[in-house]
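Figure 2 data, in text form.
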Amino acid sequence: MNFTRWSARLPGTQRRAAARDDHSSVPAARAESVRPKAAAAPPDDTSETPAPAAGPALEALPARELLGLLPAPVALLHGPDHRITYVNAAYTSAFGPRPSGAPAAEAMPELAELSLLPLMDQVLRSGTPRTVKSRKVLAGSSYTVTCTPVATGAPEDPDGEAGVLVYATDVTDHAEAAERLRASERRHRETAVTLQRSLLPQDLEQPDDLRIAATYQPGGTDAAVGGDWYDVITLGAGRTALVIGDVMGRGVRAAAVMGQLRTAVRAYARLDLPPHEVLQLLDVLAAEIDASQIATCAYAVHDPNEGHLVYASAGHLPILVCDEDGTVHRAEDPTGPPLGTGGTGAWVHTSGTIPLPPGSTAVLYTDGLVERRSEDIDEGVAALERALSGAKGTPQVVCDRLIRSLGVTAEHDDDVAVLVVQHPARTGTSAELFHNASLELLGGIEAAPRARAFATGVLASWRFPVELCDLGVLAASELVANSLQHGTPPMRLGLRRTDRRLIIEVTDGDDHLPRRRRAEPADEAGRGISIVATIASSWGSRRTPGGGKAVWCEFALPA
């Protein structure tokens, strides 16, 4: 086998064909090496020591000897069907002996396992080397393989077939280490995803007046799980708190901080504070949990009697509201500093409002839905507005359509949380299940009998069972009596029914909230709130924005 007809150049060597003459060529079939002629002896009168003879020139070494000394598997193939010309000892040791002259597709299955045959065709056609990294054979070993084109260089055969030199490096240890690392990262990510999903609400609360759906999608395999979260909290008296947030950072740590913040929001929401006060409390807590973690959050409250959302934002993206006709409104100001930054200075959180009339849809979302590396985030919000304008259907359908319209896939580079809230416009039979009635409590103690008579007539007109009417009138009387004794004008009694409950609420101008206490047998007062708490499904109180308070109770309607 005459290797002199190949011009294979191994890394770090160069051919100097111009320095060779006809006598320096060595038949490769004999695999002989030729030593250069000894240098002529120096003249007798010189005292210099003769220089030692140089080693054999690289050009004088036969290719078989060079390739055979390499510790990596090497194969030489020629022709369009890649017939085997030569395999070195390392190749034979790794894959076994291979018959000379046989096509690679038949005699070298390892090349097919490494998917090298199409690559070798490409190298043969283009004359350009190609390298593939960390390919695994069925035996389990992994190799990085370089395929180098080889042209004939023998003068006696100028039209000889071109070939390919296959040089493989065993990278099994590196591949196994990389696989262990990937497996560890997968386990870490699965743990974070499991923790994240377990901390999110498993079943969203569904208020009487709203229809709500939410979607959470973790980032793709290359993106660690973040701290996005959402929540829906029923506050009583028909009011609902809506929350969306995003903890900066990735992994289990961000998910854990998110869980603590979500729990804190639920606790603060029970205080029935204005949205900006909830965020201010949350800001202090976020700094105490982890000063290095910053989060954004939007907190909104819906009151069916008001017809709008009262909201506050801690550095979060604006809430969007789409009217029934497709017009989209953006809740711009106010926006306060993110949670954990200590927003106690000149820049503090404040509350704002945005209309949410019947037939409208509100969307709360995290930045993963609209933020793209190639464009400004305002462009992403504008794209969401366009998608929301044309999205119709149930809240879950709207969620899915927004996700698709914004191009969020399973390989998205950030996690996404979306909360869709619809205030349905009710007509016909459905509208008959929702009623409101109110009475201004004017005068002194004579307002109490008027309130009882008003409650009796309204509850009877709503066709409640007699027992529920009696309990409702008793609760209204006790709340009105408590307001007349401890509150200040203006006073008002409100009755509201939904398809699931009866709500009774009394407001007055005093901001001191009542509390339930145990009355002694000799006490003539102090039993009103205890009576209400005993007969009603739930009760509560809150301060109103105008500087007063509201005390309410609820009764569940019979199925």
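Caption note: The mean pLDDT is 84.
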